[in-house]
Design brief:
binds alpha-D-glucopyranose; Rossmann fold; 6-stranded parallel β-sheet; alpha/beta; 19 helices; 483 residues; single chain
Amino acid sequence: MNILMVAGESNPFAKSGGLADVVYSLSKELVKKGNKVSIVIPCYKKIKEQVMKEHMFDFEMVTTFPVCMSWRIQYCGVFKVNHDGIDYYFIDNEQYFYRDGLYGFDDDIERFAYFNLAVVELVLKLQMKIDVIHIHDWQAGMIPLLLKTDYRAAINYYVPHFVLTIHNPAFQGRFDPYFLGDYFNLSDVYYRDGTVRFENSASFLKAAIMLCDKITTVSPNHARELLEGEHAYGLQNVIRLREYDFVGIVNGVDEEEFDPRHDDQIAMKFTSKNVLEAKMVNKRDLLKKFGIKNPDLPLFGLVSRLTFQKGVSLILDAIPHISGKANIILLGSGEAELESRAKFLGECFAENVATYFGYNDELAHKIYAACDYFLMPSLFEPCGIGQMIAHRYGALPIVRTTGGLKDTVIGFNGENLKEADGFTFDDYTLEGLLGPCQSALDLYAYEDERYVMMKNAMNKNHSWEASAEMYLGVYREITGKNS
Ligand code: GLC
């Protein structure tokens, strides 16, 4: 099968969150299973400034062409790299992408309108014979509409099949319908007939939900939530229209990248046999770096985007209650208000609390390896990756039972030691979170029981194998092809 993934980001070149991990590691697994996979993302400043200059990859300039956005004629250059058997294509236009950061600019709609048009032109120019275009989130959402309408003749009516994966329903790519014509050269009939209309605006994501052959989201429980209107951001009615083409497939983790047996970034590598000893060594190493003195206390860790979605404010509220009984290390960056509150708490409780703002891969690995408990009390979480990485490193996740967290963590309830691999709670309140934190603090004294749970966590299968097979099943169903 020949699959083209289109997304706003992908490892190892551009990342703002879990989406980049998933696009890359799913593609890698599909290649392993004998498929041809290409990924297209924008050529961001960081890729041009750092990745290209470090010569870690052989970038090849494959083509250039103009992209017509009604009265604008924009340049497009395309770079290509083969990495891990995947062909990466980078859409280069400095006006749109040569900036610090990936998204969050006032002209995001124009930038990604350009990106969608450029991807379509690329498919035509290289005459790619694709079976499935798999688009991720809103940033690629208008491609099916373009290929099924204006570009239909240009690709000789050979329209590929489309799959949409929704990673985050909160972002929908909404815009004034005027820009259907002004950016996409499309008639406003697609607004009037409802194809792109969503709550009186036009939306990339709505268009993709309406026009893709299959829609997936990143866990079965989040699929249920989206249908029932829980954390669906108004999408439930649209998704219900496509209910029979909608499925939840849980993400896996990249087991090569996150493997405590071979992780060069941590002080002591380990397996489930020596996890207790290694945790202590890794913990001492990490705490020393932050100037925290007492390694005998349990360690709670957080590695996350610091946004409202991740329940960070609950963690900040909990800190005064936990500090003193435990140490806490927070790594992440995001909303300014959360960062400044975290900084303030770090200063108030300096003996037990340390913070690091920004993303630092090495430090993230060290935190997973060192912490006893991993905090993830998300408000909503379509899948979540941190909890699965934590499992791999024998860190027991403390999660709220939402989205994929419910599918991937079995909470300890005092009676299910044989299968429990974390702690769970339902209520999105400070008291809700303090409950499992207290259970975790209590359990710390019972090393045998804790060790059983750590082993359960480390032995859990979070590989991509089964999920990639399910995606292949989806591709087969819509193409009618077997390989
Ligand atoms: C988004 C979701 C997260 C999911 C990730 C990858 O970031 O918020 O829950 O794990 O996408 O699918």
